[in-house]
Amino acid sequence: MSTELDRRNHQAATHNLLFNLLLTVVKLVAGVMGRSEALIADGVHSGADVLSSIAVVIGLAGAGRPPDAGHHYGHAKAEAISQNVVAVLLLLAGMEVANTAISGIARASSKPSWLALAVALAAMLPKAFMAISQRRLARRTGSHAVLAASVDNRVDAASSLIAASGILASRMGFVSGDSIAALVVALLVMWGGVEVFRTAANDLMDPAADNATEASIHSVAAAVQGVRSVSSLRTRVNGAGVLVDLEVEVDRDLSLVAAHDIAHAVEDAVTQLERVRGATVHVNPAREDEKL
C-alpha cells in the first residue's frame, strides 16, 4: 500500500477530529442555551466522536509503522483495535444519553428555543458530506478505521436530523418530542457502536480480500512470463492492506534458478498492486500433460 494512501487516511482522520471537536462545543452550548435535551444528546454523541477520532488517528499511526523484529507482518491490526475503542465509546455514550432522555420524558422538559433547532439543522449537512467522502476514501484505500469514522458520521448526521425533528415537535406543542428524539438518537448511537464492533471483530479474524482484489491479483500473477497457471491463491486483509499467498505452475523442466526467478517476478508484479503489502509465492512443476 502506498504512503500516499496512508497520508490520505491520516489526513481524513485528523480533519474528522478537529471538526468533531468544534461540533461538540457548538452543540452542547446551543443545547444548554436552547433548553434542548435532543441537542445536548447530539452534543454528547459528538463528544464521543472526538474520543473516537483520537482513537482512529492513533490507530492509523500505529498501523503505518513498518514491520520489526517482534511484528514481522507489521502493525496493521492497530486499526482494528482503534475500531473496538470507537465501538465501546459509542455504546457508552448511547447508554448515557438514553438514561438522560428517559428521565426527560418522565418530567416533560421545557420547550427548546429556535437556536437549538437552527444548530441541529446546520450540523446535519456537513456531517452527511463527511460521511460520504470518508466512505469513498475507505473504499479507495481499504481502511476500515476510516470506514468506521464514516459510519459514525452517518449516524451523527441522522441523529442531528432526529434532534431537529424532536425540537420542532416540542416547539409545536408536543412536549415530550425533544426527549423522545434524544432517546432515538441514543439508540442510533448504540447501533453505530455495534456495527463498528462487528467490522473490527471480522478484521481480527483475517478475512479474505474482496473478489475484485483477488481477481486483480490472479490476473497479474497469471500474466507473468513463464507462469503456466495460478494453482492456488489465498489472501488475508491486514489493516488497510492485503497479504497474499500464491502457488503458480511453471515448466517442470526449468532449472531451480529459472523457477526461482519466475517466483520473484510474480512477487514483484503482485506487490505493485495498490493494496498488496506482501506476497509469498510457491512454484510447482506443471503436470506432464501440460508441457508444451
How would you sum up this structure in a few lines?
The protein has 292 residues and is mainly alpha-helical. 68% of the residues lie in helices and 10% in strands.
Can you describe what's shown?
- A three-stranded mixed sheet has the order 1-2-3, with helices on one face.
- Helices cover 68% and strands 10% of the residues.
- The protein has helices at residues 3-33, 37-63, 78-107, 114-141, 144-171, 177-203, 211-222, 256-270, and strands at residues 229-238, 241-250, 276-285.
- The longest helix has 31 residues, at 3-33.
- It contains eight helices and three strands; from the N terminus they run H-H-H-H-H-H-H-E-E-H-E.
- A hairpin with a 2-residue loop joins strand 1 and strand 2.
Count of discrete domains? 2
Number of strands: 3
Instruction: Tell me which CATH architecture of the largest domain applies here.
Output: Up-down Bundle
Helical proportion? 55-70%
What name does the CATH topology of the largest domain carry? Alpha-lytic protease prodomain-like
Distance between the termini: 37 Å
Major sheet details = 3 strands, mixed
Number of helices: 8
Report the order of strands and helices. Answer: HHHHHHHEEHE
Protein topology:
Elements: H1 3-33, H2 37-63, H3 78-107, H4 114-141, H5 144-171, H6 177-203, H7 211-222, E1 229-238, E2 241-250, H8 256-270, E3 276-285
Parallel strand pairs: 2-3
Antiparallel strand pairs: 1-2
Helix pairs in contact: 1-2, 1-4, 2-3, 2-5, 2-6, 3-6, 4-5, 5-6, 7-8
Domain Cation efflux protein cytoplasmic: 210-285
Subcellular location: Membrane
InterPro entries: Cation_efflux, Cation_efflux_CTD, Cation_efflux_CTD_sf, Cation_efflux_TM, Cation_efflux_TMD_sf, CDF_Transporter
